[in-house]
Amino acid sequence: MSHTPRKAIIALDLGGTRIxxxxxxxxxxxxMRQETLTLAEQGFxxxxxxxxxxxxxxxxxxxxxxxxxxxxxxxxxxxxxGLLFSxxxxxxxxxxxxxxxxxxxxxxxxxxxxxxxxxxxxxxxxGAARGCQNVIYLTISTGIGGGIVADGKLLLGHEGLxxxxxxxxxxxxxxxxxxxxxxxxxxxxxxxxxxxxxxxxPSLMHTLVDGQLDRVDGRIVGxxxxxxxxxxxxxxxxxxxxxxxxxxSLVHLFSPEMVVIGGGVSALGELLFAPIRQTVRAxxxxxxxxxxxIEPAALGEDVGLIGAAALVVTDGGLGNMADISARLNPxxx
Amino acid sequence: MSHTPRKAIIALDLGGTRIxxxxxxxxxxxxMRQETLTLAEQGFxxxxxxxxxxxxxxxxxxxxxxxxxxxxxxxxxxxxxGLLFSxxxxxxxxxxxxxxxxxxxxxxxxxxxxxxxxxxxxxxxxGAARGCQNVIYLTISTGIGGGIVADGKLLLGHEGLxxxxxxxxxxxxxxxxxxxxxxxxxxxxxxxxxxxxxxxxPSLMHTLVDGQLDRVDGRIVGxxxxxxxxxxxxxxxxxxxxxxxxxxSLVHLFSPEMVVIGGGVSALGELLFAPIRQTVRAxxxxxxxxxxxIEPAALGEDVGLIGAAALVVTDGGLGNMADISARLNPxxx
Lengths: 333, 333
Prior knowledge:
2 copies of one chain form a homodimer.
Chain A: E1 8-14, E2 18-25, E3 30-37, H1 44-58, E4 66-73, E5 77-78, E6 83-84, H2 98-106, E7 110-114, H3 115-126, E8 135-140, E9 144-150, E10 153-154, E11 169-173, E12 176-179, H4 181-184, H5 186-198, H6 205-208, H7 218-226, H8 230-254, E13 258-262, H9 270-283, H10 286-290, E14 293-296, H11 303-313, H12 321-327
Parallel strand pairs in A: 1-4, 4-7, 8-13, 13-14
Antiparallel strand pairs in A: 1-2, 2-3, 5-6, 8-9, 9-10, 11-12
C-alpha cells in the first residue's frame, strides 16, 4: 500500500498580550510552536507584520503541503467575509480583512474565528466534550463569553455574531433587565466585593489588599474564597447560582450533552461547579438533565491554537464534529 | 426536452382537536386537503387508525410517485428514533414509534417533527422569514413554544429537545428563577388578570364575564385590551415587555435576521408587537438590531401542513433553507 503524505496545518492565536503560532498535522498533533509578544500598543501594521513573520517561520520548508491557516482572534468575526470587526485589546484592529490579507500573502486557504467560538470547537474535537454533538462552552473571566456547537456544527448566526451567552438577560431589577455578564463575571464579582467591603463586612480580603479596596478584583475574591473566607464564598456562590440559571436556559434552548466551563474564574473548581450543577439540576426539565454533563475545560492554554487548527479540518466549523473527532489522535488533548 | 414528473408529498398535522392531511407538490403547493376530528379521548389506537385512513385517502391513485410523508405532532419528538415522547392533548400517545409504524404501513420515507419546530421551518421556507438563514419562531398561546432555524438548518439538539424558548429563565423573584412561559403566556395573563380583578381593580373584564372571575382567561384579557381597557392593556404590555427581554437574549445567542411570532396571543397585533420591538431595540447590542426584523407569522392554520411537507423536502430540516426556499413557488404562503 502506498502512503499518502499528510498535510500540515498552521494555527495562529492572536491575543492582546501574546501571538502564538503552531504547525500541526491533520490529526491536530502539535509538531512545532513559537510565540512572541503582541506589543498591541504599536497599532495594526507592526502587529500584522509580526503575525505574518510567525506564520512564515511555521510553514514547512520542504515538508508536506499545507491544508490551510486557522486564525483565532479576540473579537467578533464575520466568517462569510473574513473580517474582524474589532478587538478590545488590539488598538487599530477595526474591520480588518484578515482572511484576504493572509490569503494574498500565503496563497493558502485561511479560516478565521473568534476565541470563544474556537474554544468551543477545540473542546468538542479534542477536549472535555470530545464525541459530543451539542456543546455549550462558557468562558468565565473578566467577562463571560460563549461558543456553541449545535447539531454537530459551530453555531455562527448572521454575520457570525451568535453564541454571546454572557449577554443573556437574566435578572430584572426594578424593571431593568441585566445581562449575566454584569452579575457573574470576574469583573462583577470584584465590584460586588468592593461594595460589601466598603460597607464594612468582615473579610480576609481587607488584609489581602492591605486595606486598598480598589485593588480588590475577581482574582482577589477567588483567592479569599479558596481560603474559605465567608464573604468571598458568598459572592462566588451567588455568581455560580446565576451562571447555573443561565446554563439552564441554554440547556432548554440547545439540549446539549455537555456544558464546558473555562476561563480564569473556572480555576475555582468545585466552589464554582458544585453550585452551578445543583442549580441546573434543580430547575431544568428532567429529560434534559438525564443526558447532561457540566465539566471544566480540558485544553488549557493550547485551546486557541487547537481551535484555530480545528477550523481548518472542519471546513470553518461546518463539518460534523463526531466524525471529525473520531478521526483525530485519541492521545491528544 | 423531456419532462421529469414531480413527486407528491403527503403532509399530516395531528392536533388535539383535528387531524389535517394534504397532498402537495414538491414546491409545496397544496393540491388537496382533508380533515377530521381527532376524538383524542378515544385513546391511541382509534386515532392512529383515523390518521392512517386519512393518509391512505391522500395518496395519489395513479399520479406521481410520493417523495415521503411528513407528520407534525403536538409534543416532543426524537428525530433520530422517530419516537413521539408524549403529547399533552393526546391521551395514550406516549413513546409512540410514529415513524416506524407509518413506514411499515405505507413503505415510504416518513419524517416526524413537533409543531413549533415545524412552524419555524414553514415560516422560513414559505412564510414571514422566507429567504432567512437564522430565524426564531415563538408561538404565544396558552403556553409559549419555540422553533429555531440556525445557520440554515432546523435546530434539534440532543434527542430533538432543543428550542424550548418558553422555558428560558428570565426573572428571579425572591431568589427563585421563573421561566418566560410562566409570566407571559396566555395562561399567565389570565391568571394575572384574575388576581388583579379579585383585588378590585376596575376593568371592562368584570362585565365581559358577568362577574364570574374564573372565566377570565388570556382570550378575555385580549378582548378587553382591544377595547382599550387599562388593566388589560397593562397586563399585555408587561407580558410583551418580558417577551421582548426573552427575544433579546435569543438575539444575542442566535443573531437571527428574523423573529416570527405566532399563536393566538399574537392576534393582538401592535398591542403586543410594538412593546416587544421597543424592548428589544432598547437592550440588544446595536450590530444585532441592524439586521433584525420582528414580524407576525404569515402562514395561518396551514402552518402545520406546510411545515410537515417542508420536513420532506428539507430531508428532516437539515437541508439549507435559503436554497430550498428559492426552489419553492414564490406565490405560495
